[in-house]
Specification:
The chain is mainly beta. The protein is built from 4 helices and 27 strands. It has 3 domains: 117 residues, Immunoglobulins (Immunoglobulin-like); 121 residues, Immunoglobulin-like (Sandwich); 150 residues, L,D-transpeptidase catalytic domain-like (Beta Barrel). Helix content is 8%, strand content 33%. A hairpin with a 2-residue loop joins strand 1 and strand 2. The longest helix has 15 residues.
């Protein structure tokens, strides 16, 4: 029996005994594709495996649109971003054996999973070139502060609460970093489920300025998971400041951790006037809503829930500069006092809130000044059950897309291609875009009369 065969059988047996499911249920020959065949799993860099596979013998009568990978029988199947034939898995742990499977996707759905093949990422041979045995002089040390909710969720940096899957962790250094690629090489992201099985989470670090770097998954974090960001930056040379070298303090040899709660995604459709709430990918609620009317269209895009909620809030035409406080005779004048169950989405004034005066148009037509009008009991459900980091996605509103600096969801609205330009390792131009989104000012918000 070959070593490779013993590794595969041993890994498969270990996973089976732990209760994990290695393969999806086999489909009929049609309309699903046949399973791909993995031909090699090759370590190529720190924490990285490249999976090479042969295309399925049959596509089920519908073209294959994507390939997905799973690690150690995990339920998460991220889509491979490589060209057909290879799939790169990153953020793995060096020296750990992983059992990998691939499946194909067509219009009918996924194929059965391939047979599992084991691969082990390895560290580069030889000493770390970023950590010389003798530190250069003159030098200064830099430390960093970790924030698991760097996209402004309103939480304490030291909070241990489980977060929604739209949170964005960041590190802020005490000095400017010119060696940005060194930082990215020495930060690895490891995600595991409640059974300790790893998820593969495609994503990239991006620099918001010369001191702050943030990790953004390509999609969302998996729910009910632990995320460990392993830093090996201690005593690494992180570039220079003038003639002085900047060195990572020994305290940067550490692991930063946070957890996610259940995966809640809220989808709001301005065309159907409905809000659909999904928990762990299962639809649990459908609410009728009304969005912004013409010239006050609600913004499209991602908006992330924060701690900024108010059990009662007063909405006025004055806050929108529609009227003055003493212009009561103006037909645009309104003052809606103590409206219940207000969940703020943006600093510019978009809320989800109760609108008992608008029941006749909920689920039918839009009439607010940008807020999401809801029945009182529905607004309370959102208020009570959402947590910082939960994701809402707005579409077909007729409005512009939420600006990157407009609240906790803004950074999610940067296209993936533009986000990669903020990475020293992923940018194809060779330069790093460190442009920070311009924050917008907080307003009192708006609601329809």
């Amino acid at each position: 029996m070959s070593v490779k065969f013993r590794e595969v059988v041993g890994a498969a047996l270990a996973i089976a005994l732990s209760g994990a499911v290695l393969a999806a249920p086999a489909h009929a020959a049609s309309p699903y594709p046949d399973a791909p065949v993995i031909t090699a799993v090759t370590p190529t860099a720190t924490g990285t495996l490249v999976v090479t596979y042969a295309r399925p013998a049959a596509d089920g009568g519908s073209p294959i649109t994507a390939y997905q990978a799973s690690v150690d029988g995990g339920a998460n199947w991220p889509t491979c971003s490589d060209a057909a034939g290879t799939c790169t898995l990153v953020n793995l742990t060096n020296g750990t054996a992983y059992s990998i499977q691939i499946r194909a996707i067509n219009s009918a759905g996924p194929s059965a999973a391939s047979a599992a093949v084991v691969g082990t990422p390895v560290a580069p041979a030889g000493p770390d070139p970023d950590k010389p045995a003798t530190l250069p002089k003159p030098h200064v040390w830099t430390t960093a502060v970790f924030n698991p909710a760097g996209n402004g969720l309103g939480l304490s940096v030291k909070s241990t609460d489980a977060l929604g899957v739209g949170t964005l962790p960041q590190l802020t250094f005490t000095r400017s970093i010119s060696g940005k690629a060194v930082v990215e090489r020495h930060l690895s992201v490891k995600t595991t489920d409640t059974l300790g099985r790893p998820y593969v989470v495609p994503g990239s670090w991006g620099w918001l300025n010369d001191r702050t770097v943030m990790f953004r998954p390509k999609s969302w974090w998996p729910g009910n998971s632990r995320i460990d960001i392993v830093s090996t930056l201690g005593k690494a040379v992180l570039g220079k400041s003038g003639s002085t070298y900047v060195i990572g303090a020994p305290s940067l040899e550490t692991t930063y951790s946070f957890t996610t709660a259940r995966r809640m995604i809220i989808k709001v459709d301005g065309k159907t006037h409905l809000m659909r709430v999904y928990v762990n990918d299962k639809k649990v609620k459908t609410f009728p809503i009304s969005l912004g009317q013409e010239e006050w269209e609600t913004r499209n895009g991602v908006k992330v829930i924060s701690t900024r909620k108010e059990p009662k809030h007063t909405y006025t035409s004055v806050s929108l500069d529609l009227t003055t406080a003493d212009d009561i005779a103006n037909p645009e004048f309104y003052e809606l006092k103590d409206i219940p169950w207000n969940t703020r989405l943006t600093p510019t004034g978009e809320f989800m809130h109760a609108a008992p005066w608008a029941l006749g148009r909920l689920g039918r037509w839009n009439g607010s000044h940008g807020c999401t009008n809801m029945r009182t009991e529905d607004a309370q459900w959102i208020y009570d059950r959402t947590i910082p980091g939960d994701v809402s996605i707005y579409s077909n509103t007729g409005g512009e897309t939420v600006e990157p600096g407009n609240g906790p969801g803004g950074l999610w609205n940067i296209s993936w291609e533009k986000w990669l330009k903020k990475s020293a390792l992923r940018s194809v131009t060779g330069t790093v875009d460190t442009t920070a989104p311009v924050p917008v000012s907080v307003t009192n918000g708006a609601a329809s009369a």
